[in-house]
Design a protein that fits this description.
Number of strands: 8
CATH architecture: 3-Layer(aba) Sandwich
Distance between the termini: 16 Å
Structural class: alpha+beta
Number of helices: 5
Strand content: 25-35%
CATH class: Alpha Beta
Largest sheet: 8 strands, mixed
CATH topology: Aminopeptidase
Number of domains: 1
């Protein structure tokens, strides 16, 4: 977890959060000449949450970046910045959301191989026994999406993703 937090520039998860979470690992079989140990190529931490906010579409986020006309009244549903650096905004209304992903990490030498998507799919399928979760229905939310994480989140979630505060 220390390596993941350092790589993601994230604060450590508290012991109580870790105790109440599930960890999913993507393991690689040993190759010829390697030790007989498996290698961890990816890790995902999943936790039960209650609410999250819907991420605005790129089109909605672009509108926020434009200067509004002074005569336009401020909208009650103005978007909230989640990460200005990657242009990520969300709607302020909290929505019921059962699954939170506070950490997902794939080692740099194993990225772009579908590992993050496989970890996310396995988590959504098994996190709540007998109740598969669907990201397209808003059942999954993320915290602190990095630029790469934002791309994975949007691609895997089909554009219906949510974010929550840790």
């Amino acid at each position: 977890m220390d390596t993941i937090n350092l790589a993601l520039c994230s604060p450590p998860l508290t012991p109580s959060v870790l105790h109440a979470s599930k960890a999913y690992l993507f393991l690689l079989s040993p190759t010829t000449g390697d030790s007989a140990r498996e290698k961890i190529a990816g890790c995902l931490i999943a936790q039960r949450i209650s609410t999250a906010m819907m991420i605005a579409s790129p089109e909605e986020s672009d509108i926020v970046n434009q200067v509004s006309h002074p005569s336009e009244p401020a909208s009650k549903s103005a978007l909230v910045p989640a990460d200005i650096n990657v242009g990520l905004f969300c709607h302020p209304t909290p929505l019921p959301t059962p699954l939170g992903i506070p950490r997902i990490f794939v080692s740099s030498s194993h990225r772009r191989q579908g590992i993050a998507s496989k970890l996310l799919s396995a988590t959504a399928e098994t996190f709540i026994h007998g109740c598969p979760l669907d990201p397209r229905k808003g059942h999954v939310a993320f915290t602190q999406p990095t630029g790469d994480g934002n791309a994975v989140m949007r691609r895997w979630g089909g554009g219906s993703m949510r974010v929550y505060e840790e």
